[in-house]
Amino acid sequence: MIGSVTEEKVRVRYAETDQMGHAYYANYLIWFEQARSAFFRERGLPYKEIEERGYKFPVVEAHARYKGEVKYDDEITIRVWVGELKRAAVRIDYEVVLGGKVVTEGYTWHVCVGSDFKAVTLPLFLRELVEPTESRLE
Fold it and tell me: How is domain 6-130 classified at the CATH fold level?
């Protein structure tokens, strides 16, 4: 894990579970997005302002690895940080933690695009915002 970490707490709602009482797998991507938005807000630049400056970060790849159970009314913590940075792309990494245990790991790749939806080099203000600055603390 590189870069500073943001933590977002989520209480699993009944509507987010499946017939077996477990959190429905697709909801993890929604929680990832919620944590990612918190990541940008915590750094003083909400995603909405990034868009107002003419840039967007569409998801071009998403991955989740489920390692444990999450059920209705569990309070989970989603940890989010920048895992990798390229000229025009960023990989955002996630961990879902329940009771101190990582129960899900994942990532999303985002490409920086301009108003014409063509890839552009990350502008300096954005690179400085997402650039990894700390090492993992175990």
Answer: Thiol Ester Dehydrase; Chain A (3.10.129)
